[in-house]
Amino acid sequence: MLKSKGLEVGYRTQRETISVSRNISFELSEGEMGAIVGVNGIGKSTLLRTLARVQQELSGSIEVAGKTIDKYRQKDWATKVSVVLTEPLAAKNLSVQQLVGLGRHPYTNWIGMLSHTDIAKIQEAIELIGLDELKYKKCHELSDGQLQKVLIARALAQDTSVILLDEPTTHLDLYHKVQILKLLQEIAHRKKKTILYTTHEIDLAIQLCDKILIMEKNQNSFGSPEALIKSEHFNRLFPTDTIRFDPETASFKIRK
Amino acid sequence: MTVKKKYYFSFIVLGIVLLLSTMLNLGLGSVSIPFNEVMGVLFGGDSSRESWSYIIWNYRVPKALTAILVGSALSLSGLLMQTLFRNPLAGPFVLGISSGASLGAALLIMGTAIWSGWFSYGIINDISLAIASGIGSFLVLLIVVVVATRVKDSMALLIIGLMFGSITAAIVTVLSYFTQAEQLQQYIFWSFGTVGNLNWTQLLILTTSTLVGLFLSVLSLKSLNALLLGEQYARSMGVHIRKARYIIIIATGILAGAVTAFAGPIAFIGLAVPHLTRQIFNTTDHKILVPAVLMYGAILLLLCDTLAQLPMSSYVLPINAITSIIGAPVVIWLLIRKKKMIF
C-alpha cells in the first residue's frame, strides 16, 4: 500500500540542497502498522512530511496504492493519505465535531456542505475513537491526550487508506501513550488501514507494531520487530557506552 | 440541527438591527427632518420641503450606503486576514494596509506640493486621491505577503505592520514640515476618514469592488475553513495552498484598498468586528461567519456614523476617531475577559 525505494529526503533551497537521509526503502501493506524510530535530528519528521507530500523528495520513489505519489492530483491525493502533525492547532475555538468534520473536506462540494454520507462518516469516526461525550466541546477545553484523539478522528473521517502520524504520543503519560497506540493498532487491523508513525518510544513500538523502520546515519533498516531484534539492529541505535539494548526484554537498559 | 436554528434566529435579529440602524442613520443628521417625512421620501413620496428630498437622496442615502459598504468590506477583510494569518490580531489596520494608504495620500497631497508646486492643485481630486491611497495600500499588502511567506511567526508579521505605521507617521511628519498649511489641512481631513463625501459614481465603484471581494471570499469559503487547521493540514486535505492564499489576499486587498481609497483610513472595524461576531455566533465556520461579519460590520459603522454626525448639530466628528474610541476598548476588553483571543 505504502512503498518507498531508494528514497532520499531533505530540503531544497534556492542555493543548496541539504540531504537529511538517503537510501530509505520499505513497504507496508494494507492493515499494517509501522513505526519510524531513530535518534533526534535523524530525519524522521522530514521523512514523514515527504511521505505526506508536504515536502518534495530529493530522489527515489514513493508509491501509494501502486502509483507514484507525484502522479496523484491534489484532490485525489487527499482521499488516499491523511496526516496527524505536531504543529499546534491554530484555531482553538473549533468544536470537536467541526474539527473532525473538516476531515471530509476532499469529499464536499465547492462550498463545503456536508452530505448525509459525510455526517455519517464523521459520527462513525467520533464513535470509533470514543469521543461521543466530547463532541460539542471546544478544542481549547481538551487535554493533550483528548486533542490527539480528536486529530486521529479527523484523519479517520478523511477516509484514506494510509494515515501518517508525526510523534502522536509526545507529551502524553505512559497510559495515554499506550491507549493511543493500541487505538491505532486496532484501526490498522480492523479497518484495514495502513498506519505509519514516528516515535521515540521504541519499546512500545516493538510491542505493538507490525513493522519498524530504523533510521541511522548511513543505513536504514526495515523489518518486523522480531527480525530487527534478531539481527541486533537496535543495539547500534544509541552509543553503547550509555545505553544497551536487551533482547530478552526487548527494551533499553542504562549501563551502570 | 438545533444549532442551525439558533443561527437563523441570530441572523434574523441581526437583520432587524441592521434595518433599524439604517433607518436611524437616515433619520438623524445635522438638519432635523421629521422621521415620517424621511420615510415618505424614501418610498417615493414628496416631502413638504424641496430641500429635504434633496438632502435625503443626495446626501443621506449615499452616506448610509457608503457606511454599510465600508463597514461590511472592512470587517470581511479583517476576517479573511485573521484566518489567513491565523492570528486574532490581524486586520487591515494592524497589518499596515491603512498606513500604506495614508502614505499614498500624503505623498500625493503634500509631496506633489513640495516638488512641483505649480501643477499640484490641478491633479489633487477625489479620483487621484483614491488611486494614490489604493496603490499605497496594495503595495504594503504585497510587502506583507512577501514577508508572510518568509516569516512563519505571525507575531513578527504584526510587528512589521506596526513598523510600517511608524515609517508612515515619520514620512508624513517630514512632509508636513515642508508643506503649506493648506495641503496639511487637506491631508488631515483625509485622515479623519469619511463616509459622507461619495457621489453616486464613486459609490458604484465601491459597490463593485466590495462585490468582487465578496465573490472571491465566497469562492474561498471552503479553503478558509480548512486553513483553520494550518497550512500543512489544509494541503493534506486537498487545498491548493498557493492559489487559495492568492485569492484570499487579493480579496483582502480589494476590500480594504477600495474602502481606504474612498473613505480614508477607518480604524479598528476590521479587527474588532470579527471578534464581536464570534461572541454571538459561537462558530468557526466561515459559511456562517462571512454573512454575519458583513451584517455586524454594517451595523457598527452605521451607528458610528450616526454618532459622528452629532445629530441636531452642524458638527461632524471624524469617523476614524469614533471607530477607534469604540474599537480599541473592545479589543482591550476581549483580551482581558477572554485572557487570550482564541478564534
Describe the structure.
The complex is a heterodimer of chains A (256) and B (343). Chain A is of the alpha/beta class. Chain A folds into 2 domains: 1-80 and 161-170 and 189-256, Rossmann fold (3-Layer(aba) Sandwich); 87-159, no CATH class. Helices cover 30% and strands 26% of the residues of chain A. Chain A has 8 helices and 12 strands. Chain A has a 6-stranded mixed beta sheet, with helices on both faces. Chain A has a 4-stranded antiparallel beta sheet with strand order 2-1-4-5, with helices on one face. In chain A, β7 (162-165), α6 and β8 form a beta-alpha-beta unit. In chain A, α3 packs parallel to α5 and α4 (116-129) runs antiparallel to α5. The longest helix of chain A is centred in the last third of the chain and has 18 residues, at 174-191. Chain A starts with a strand and ends with a strand. The mean pLDDT of chain A is 92. The longest helix of chain B is centred in the N-terminal third of the chain and has 35 residues, at 50-84. The two termini of chain B are 23 Å apart. The model of chain B has no long low-confidence stretch (mean pLDDT 85). The A-B interface holds A 49, 52-54, 74-75, 77-79, 81-83, 85, 87, 89-94, 98-99, 102-103, 105-106, 108, 110-112, 140, 158 and B 86, 218-219, 221-222, 225-230, 232-233, 235-240, 278, 282-285, 287, 342-343.
